[in-house]
């Protein structure tokens, strides 16, 4: 594979992973801040409402952890390995195929 083709593959994949993971980290911070604000503002809400908010926080944290793991794998441990970058992680491959076909 030529150097120009490799640069294009790396730029397209790594740039997207970096932007997506940074956005995910930022939005997780927004969720954590919102949850803390909710618990402070509404301490007398019913338990099931607090549970829904808590579960939402746990799911957001888990999603961000998986995003961070994928970003670390692609950006650090597999940097420059085109064979790894050509395969989508199992977590991404399902939703990636749900879009319109070309």
Question: What are its keywords?
Answer:
102 residues; 0% strand; mainly alpha
Can you walk me through this structure?
The chain has 102 residues and is mainly alpha-helical. It is 80% helix and 0% strand. It has four helices and no strands. Helix 1 packs antiparallel against helix 2. The two termini are 25 Å apart. The relative contact order is 0.13. The C terminus is likely disordered.
- pLDDT < 50 runs, ≥5 residues: 96-102
Strand content: under 5%
Please state the overall shape, judged from the principal axes of the Cα atoms: elongated
List SSEs in N-to-C order: HHHH
What structural class is derived from the secondary structure elements?
mainly alpha
- Characterize the largest beta sheet: strand count, sense, and whether it forms a barrel: none
What is the overall number of helices? 4
The amount of helix comes to over 70%
Assembly state: single chain
Based on CA atoms alone, the radius of gyration comes out at 18 Å
Distance between the termini: 25 Å
List the helices and strands and how they pair.
Layout: H1 3-41, H2 47-77, H3 82-86, H4 90-96
Helix pairs in contact: 1-2
Summarize the structure.
With 102 residues, the protein is mostly helical. Helix content is 80%, strand content 0%.
